[in-house]
Amino acid sequence: MAKAKPIQGLDAQAPTGNNARIIARVRLEEMYQWERYVDSPSHERELHNLRIAAKRLRYTLEIFEDVLPEACKPAIKELERIQEELGALHDSDVKIALLQRCLSSQNSGAPYKPTILEAKQQHRESNTVGELSKKDEQSDVVGPLSEARFNYFAPRGGMGANAAEFALPPELLAVLLDPLSTPTAQQSRGLGQLLLKYQQSREEQYFNFRQYWHQLQARDFRHQLLSILDT
């Protein structure tokens, strides 16, 4: 995940609104540094960084909402949608990567052994719930983990009505994350079908995000927001 840019030029003696505008401009430019990857669906990491940058800008506008122009409020909703579209895309990327690794280990004859650092990183980036136990923290690999202990792919906002659409079943997670487990041929066929489903879903998610992004740019979202901040 890309680090946030440091903010220069803040004045502790200036009105809060002035400093808020400086921060918002930096966060806006930070978001647009990833724009060149919008039309590159295979740049998963860069698209994830775009999502994080959009979230930082959105939170900036929300935190300083009382001292920024009223016209900033619609931008918060638009940034929220960008964040949600890219969040769904990233969730699919994590699922696809895990399934591909599992199937690859089956084809090579060696079980997939995700390191604890890999599991933690995917856990953080997916905004999932749950935590690793101390025993897992001290081990070299992640053992069988139930949904209650480590909810790898819980939907954002918790387990809602559509949870089944996003969360992998605990028994499947146990197979995928068990370092001593190699899927059977039948299991591999099922995992292959699930992988295809997530790949198709990702294509739709990417299309929706890209379409919405270009709609915003057709309205010149960047310069609109800059103009509002300059008022």
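The record above closes out task 2.4. Task 2.5 opens with a second protein, given below.
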Amino acid sequence: MNSPAREAILSSIRSHLAASVPHNTQENFVDSENPSVSLSGLTSVPLVHKFEANLEAVGGHCIITHGDTGIAQALTQIIGDLQKTNLRAQRIAISDEQRVERLLQQTDLEIEALAIAPNASEIFTFDLGITTAQAAIAETGTLVLDSADERHRLVSLVPPVHIAIIDAGRICETLGEALSLLRRERELSRAVTFITGPSRTADIELTLTIGVHGPQELYVIVDTPVN
């Protein structure tokens, strides 16, 4: 590599390192009254909205609402709309988290079948799965599902549609913060699932296909506190 080119590269590296110093030395804080907002010295963006933007950027859908009534209304709207499509959403599998069943009972939906954490031989007959999520990562729009307290792995991965419910206070900025949150509460299970948008894959010609190895539709309902 000739000297001018080498010097140009080194100069660029030095300038970027210098620019990063103010950010590296800043202390991060969390607003205790609104844990979904990161307060650094920079212009802060609510983590809920950052998560929403990044989830939708990878093909997911985000619904922000308030309380059990709002969640039940969101479930009614999502499932009601899906029932008008070829996805049907008539056979619903849910995790064994009691809150999920309670919220679904608050809807006025008409469905063919409802099962709690069906086994591997049954799960493929369901159109839709509903679970909660134990954490989320705002910077990538990723859900984190830890099976330590909830049986949701098959429910979240096999049916064509997955609906996840999460409290806004469990949305973290980064993967490290999300894992730290879970470790503070319990020992992590051996089955932690990371979900970033609907399942997608590409063949050798880079033709993108949605829903081959998992759900083709992902909806996340975020429960935020009432201001």
